[in-house]
Amino acid sequence: MKTEHFDVVVVGGGAAGAAAATGASRLGAKTLLLERYGFLGGAATNSQVLAYCGFFLGHDSAVPSVLGVGRDLLNHIQDLGFDTSARKSKNGWVLSLDPESVKLAFDRLVLGAKVDLCLHSFLVAAHREGHQLQSITVADHRGMRDISATCFVDASGEATLSSHAGVSMSQPGGVAAHLQPASMPMRIGGIAPDLVLDKERLIELIAQHNMHSDLKITRADGGFMTRLPGSQDVWWLVIDLPTAGLSGPDLTLVETDARERAQYHLQVLRKLPGFEKTHLLSTGPQIGIRETRRPYSLEDVTVQDGLSGKRRADAIARASWPMEVHESPGQARYLPIGGEGFFDIPHGAIQAKGILNLRLAGRVVGSDTQAYGSLRVMGTAFATGHAAGISAALHQPAQVPSSNAVRKELVQQNALV
User: Fold this and answer.
1) How far apart (Å, rounded) are the C-alpha atoms in residues 158 and 364?
2) Which of 10, 208, 267, 331 is deepest in the core (most CB within 10 A)?
3) What's the pLDDT band for 235 if we cut at 50, 70, 90?
4) Domain boundary at 250, 282, 314, which?
5) Residue 331 maps to which CATH number?
6) What is the pTM of this model?
């Protein structure tokens, strides 16, 4: 069977992958975007993480830190009739999302850029010669096929392409690793439209529940609850569970456990006035994974970069969300961003160590544990994905483009660098 060839192949259709494919295709590169689900959007759609963080600086007003393709996606959502204005939360500016409009907005973004989109496609192997990635093997219901490219982008979230290609990992994943817990957000209905949450009473009910229950609510502060745009439904983020997040058996255990807890925890919520008839409308197709494994890049971003708000001449993206590290279920620590309220991500952080033609985007960008807490959020993922796609499109065989060349093209596409 003949191997298909593209200029750029992107693995993973979340915020980072869609931004990478869109940015590359806008430069004229023949670009393929591969996604294992039947829709794009990443955690926002496959895990029902219905909030975008990282689009704005943590100031009194919503000052953008991400534009470019990320802003284009928000414009598509707005065109569908949904409000994309941000609201101030305790830790920064957040945009609430409607999952169905997000799916369609991603379709319009990617297809409008003339990306070759292939859903329902699983990466099963990578083929490497020396410091070059030659091709990958992809499976769907028809069978398997090989695809080659001049440059590849790993936007898989779990570093699947990097792992298959043999890139060394700074965070190896697995059951022995200290990983941030996963979350299963719930969409719930049956609540009066004008009802205001009594958070103090909810905290009291959770404390009483945890004294006597084996299925404890790990977020003793009641978690995060907000109305969703376009409906009277409520989004409740309260379930955190540890998992290695890579193998089928591990994911099976955590997801079946989380579904039991989702139903069980509603019993606590129904004790609140006005919540008596609340019911579960949906959880995501999968649990929301925060962290599994991370490949080494040429220049990993560090916690000191974030604390100092480090600026760089070779920057290709900005990270502005506080370094949010969930140390255990229900226990999150936020490290503030110094300087001007953001820190620069260098071109080296999106280049895989040891493979010239492999770029990293989103949750697989090179970083230490604390800096990862800022890089992993979806607003920042749009920015690193956009940069990775442009860097991949500019790549020549055995010749990585300069950071200046990438920066120039990012500015042409309205990104902030």
Assistant:
1) 7
2) 10
3) very high
4) 282
5) 3.50.50.60
6) 0.97
